[in-house]
Automatic annotation (TrEMBL):
Name of this protein: tRNA-guanine(15) transglycosylase
HAMAP family in the cross-refs: TgtA_arch (MF_01634)
Cofactor note: Binds 1 zinc ion per subunit.
Organism of origin: Cuniculiplasma divulgatum
Keywords assigned by UniProt, alphabetized: Glycosyltransferase, Metal-binding, Transferase, tRNA processing, Zinc
Lineage of origin: Archaea, Methanobacteriati, Thermoplasmatota, Thermoplasmata, Thermoplasmatales
Length: 623
């Protein structure tokens, strides 16, 4: 065993959802992913079939192995991987769940962990205390603290082995936060959310939303988060949206033994099924009639195969959704497939304000606007913050503004001849007209055809031009990206704005022959040059807009090389993922301007990977 850590490397993200990978002694595990539960006494599906479906890791129970003399001897002699016949990552559970079901187990915490190490588990689990959803606050608190104590008991082992530290706390949000914080601060390299099986079985997804979110937000983001028992494809996408990376599940076998087929939106009894879904791996080998006539053992094994495939298919869709940044939309539409999912989705909306800081400045895909619920989503909440106070603005009619189409007549003959605040009516939200191009104001798809109400302004040529729309737009967008009031300092009155001949839109902004910034066509945001960065650096105080790196890192970053997480010393906690940031050395000298890959809150949690990609750097301008 090497000195261990399962530190997450992030490859793609959407808010709290992430595609990443971690490594054990038996290879990489790409996340989000599932560990099928393997009972060493009962083999339902051949390992090769599991691998073919995409299994990179499995979970088995060390308690079951230890209690069976033959399994125990074999595991101690040749190791767990030989016993199971699997060369990928194997996680072991401790017997906690059995303790919960049967009211106790005969082993102690420390020797339970030692046994898992002896049989060469890649990720071992302490004997945590399962807190049930019906526990009192007092009882659940004791479970949280005892679980933490049990981790402390084996902390010497955790220095050199991967130990998972379950987060408990029943349905109590404060206890989940406490548990997540306590476990994150230990050497636990893996954080499963425990005690949730009863809630999953009862479809109590709203409770799960609260539990997962509290656990996730208080946890160390560099550690993989696992949902114990959460492998039903119906809920996996929502769990991933809330930051879960890994699942385990015996459901593929359990449902098979109950003669049920798993679908991404629920289950069906075999007896009720007339057609196999087109994607089922069973199609090549059986007709539904043949499956129904198989004898029990074979039938269970065949159904388990179908069920496991359904889980992997859903995971593949979830990962694809994260890559294209449409997971939120996917969950929103999927939530209509079951009332419990819909109420859970509405519960997520009540947390939008807390998760908004983790959402990227812009996304690859346009926002699908479904209705008032979209206004309560993280991007809706972000835009709502832009709403001016009532009574301080006038609203345009939809004849003057539709997404991506602001009337130039309005700009030249009304806006520029007035000092008034004007807003556009964005599906009920009042957004300052200067923000017309930013994501998702312009990058939106909706099915509404109704004209939005507002005032249609008549041209009035009697007045003088008193302001420049493009300059006001730049300053507003800069205020949003870099802090209120900074727009005016970065873009003084004498800056020069060039616009695209084809579209009339702002392209570059310069002053004294040097370019300060560009405005991106695809998301309507500002990209700073090094000169622009110098201006922002001059006016923004403290840690604002900054990522401060070690002196050693600064040398590399000044040549245009990316900032790695491990070299970040301090940073602005309010950084929005994918926004431009100032990279400074420990003396606060500007080294480079780049794009933050994660939010300010996450930046000092990760250990592996790129924190900031550099767009412009100091040596470029001096050479
Ligand atoms: N399996 C399902 N739930 C749990 C849990 O809370 N703890 C452990 N160790 N295993 C589980």
């Amino acid at each position: 065993m090497t000195g261990q850590s399962l530190t997450m490397q992030i490859l793609h993200r959407e808010g709290l959802a992430r595609i990443g990978r971690f490594k054990t002694d038996h290879g990489y595990v790409d996340t989000p992913n599932i560990m099928p539960v393997i009972n060493p006494n009962l083999r339902t599906i051949p390992i090769d079939t599991m691998k073919k479906f995409g299994t990179q890791a499995i979970i088995t129970n060390s308690y079951i192995i230890r209690r069976n003399q033959d399994l125990k001897d074999e595991a101690l002699k040749n190791g767990l991987h030989s016993l199971i016949g699997f060369d990928g990552t194997i996680m072991t559970d401790s017997g906690t769940f059995q303790s919960y079901v049967y009211g106790g187990v005969e082993y102690e915490n420390r020797d339970t962990v030692e046994f898992q190490i002896d049989i060469k588990s890649d990720i071992s689990t302490i004997l945590d205390i399962f807190s049930t959803p019906s526990d009192s606050h007092e009882k659940a608190r004791l479970a949280v603290d005892e679980t933490h104590k049990r981790f402390e008991e084996i902390k010497d082992i955790a220095k050199s082995h991967n130990i998972s530290g379950p987060i408990q706390g029943s349905i109590y949000r404060d206890l989940r936060r406490r548990s997540a914080k306590l476990m994150s601060d230990t050497d636990a390299s893996y954080l499963p959310i425990g005690g949730v099986v009863p809630l999953l079985e009862q479809y109590k997804y709203s409770n799960l939303v609260d539990i997962i979110l509290e656990s996730k937000l208080a946890s160390d983001f560099s550690k993989p988060v696992h949902l114990f028992g959460g492998g039903h494809p119906m809920f996996m996408g929502m769990a991933v949206l809330l930051g879960v990376d890994m699942f385990d599940s015996a459901s593929y076998v359990k449902y098979a033994r109950d003669d049920r087929l798993l679908y991404t939106e629920g289950t069906r009894y075999l007896a009720d099924v007339t057609e196999l879904p087109y994607w089922s791996p069973l199609n090549e080998r059986f007709t539904i009639k043949e499956i129904k006539s198989l004898e029990e053992k074979e039938r269970y094994s065949i159904l388990a195969e179908h069920n496991l495939f359904a889980i992997f298919q859903e995971l593949s869709e979830i990962r694809e959704r994260i890559r294209e940044n449409t997971l939120w939309q996917y969950i929103e539409s999927k939530s209509r497939s079951h009332p419990s999912l819909y109420s859970a989705f509405k519960r997520i909306l009540t947390h939008s304000k807390r998760i908004e800081p983790y959402f990227e400045l812009y996304r690859k895909s346009p926002l699908f606007h479904f209705g008032t619920e979209t206004n309560r989503s993280p991007y809706g909440i972000r835009l709502k913050k832009l709403e001016p106070e009532k009574g301080t603005y006038s609203t345009l009619s939809s004849r003057e503004w539709k997404p991506a189409r602001l009337s130039q007549d309005f700009v030249r003959n009304v806006y520029e001849k007035s000092e008034e605040n004007f807003c556009i009516n964005w599906y009920g939200l009042k957004i300052p007209v200067e923000m017309e191009e930013i994501y998702p104001v312009e990058q939106v798809i909706s099915g509404y055809e109704k004209e939005t109400k507002g005032t249609l302004f008549r041209r009035d040529n009697g007045y003088e031009k008193v302001r420049n729309f493009n300059l006001e737009k730049l300053r507003r967008v800069a205020d949003f990206q870099f802090g209120k009031g900074n727009g005016k300092s970065i873009f003084p009155d004498d800056c020069k704005i060039t616009v695209s001949k084809a579209t009339g839109r702002i392209r570059t902004i310069s002053r004294n022959d040097s370019i300060l910034a560009t405005m991106r066509a695809h998301d309507g945001f500002i990209g700073l040059t090094f000169e622009g960065g110098l201006k922002l650096h001059e006016v923004s105080k403290g840690m604002n807009n900054r990522v401060m790196v070690t002196r050693e890192s600064a040398t590399y970053n000044s040549q245009g090389k990316s900032v790695f997480f491990k070299f970040v010393e301090q940073n602005d906690m309010g950084i929005i993922p994918l926004n431009d940031v100032l990279v400074v050395d420990p003396d606060d000298s500007l080294i480079a301007v780049g794009r933050a890959m994660v939010s300010g809150r996450e930046m000092r949690m990760y250990k592996d990977g790129v924190a900031v990609t550099i767009n412009h750097h100091i040596q470029e301008t001096t050479s």
